[in-house]
From TrEMBL:
Organism: Xanthomonas arboricola pv. pruni
Residue ranges of every copy of the Gp5/Type VI secretion system Vgr protein OB-fold domain listed in the record: 16-82
Domain of life: Bacteria
Protein name: Phage baseplate assembly protein V
Length: 189
């Protein structure tokens, strides 16, 4: 019959728990496993080489503590278990969702070939690419647009109301010195 230490070590190989405390500076967390609170343990991430992902665990997040030698003090925290507190954000085999604590979400539907990013009210998005940004496909912008630089259009520009350049309305400006025939009018007013 195994000793009590051996039995304890075997039972500690894989333990379910919930994140209780997080040390962001050291990328460690303490896990509540039943009545016991673990030491600060490293959590497992999906990428930690030349490409790195950072996402700290949430207090209350359900986790698995893996202790290869059976000693919880040497354990690793494996994240990614849905729970009542942090339920699955979708029930679809074609929809992939990344949801953040503030409500921001990124969805990609492999069946519809549709990508959607939604930010909470007041959210902002910035893309910095000093080499340029190319969008291929029709573009719809709903809202006021500010261009801080020159604009070049290869094609036709259409406006349903008016175009104003240098304070002069294309639709309602008046010209002076109009002469019938092939003569040029005066400058716009």
């Amino acid at each position: 019959m195994p000793s009590s230490d051996h039995a304890r070590n075997v039972s500690n190989l894989v333990r379910l728990g919930a994140v209780a405390l997080v040390d962001l500076e050291r990328a460690r967390c303490r896990v509540q496993v039943g009545e016991m609170l673990s030491d600060y343990l490293p959590w497992v991430v999906t990428l930690a080489g030349t490409t790195i992902i950072w996402s700290a665990p949430a207090i209350g997040e359900q986790v698995v503590v893996l202790s290869p030698a059976g000693d919880l003090a040497d354990g690793l925290v494996l994240r990614g278990l849905y729970s009542d507190q942090f339920a699955a954000p979708a029930a679809s085999d074609t929809l992939h969702v990344l949801r953040f604590a503030d409500g921001a979400q990124i969805h990609y539907d492999t069946e519809a070939h549709a990508l959607q990013a939604t930010l909470p009210s007041g959210g902002t998005a910035i893309i910095n690419a000093d080499g340029g940004i190319t969008l291929n496909g029709p573009l719809t912008v709903n809202g006021e647009t500010v261009l801080n630089g020159d604009a070049t259009i290869t094609g036709t520009a259409k406006a349903t109301t008016d175009v104003i350049g240098g304070g002069i309305s294309l639709k309602s400006h008046k010209t002076t010195g109009v002469t019938a025939g092939s003569a040029l009018s005066g400058g716009p007013q």
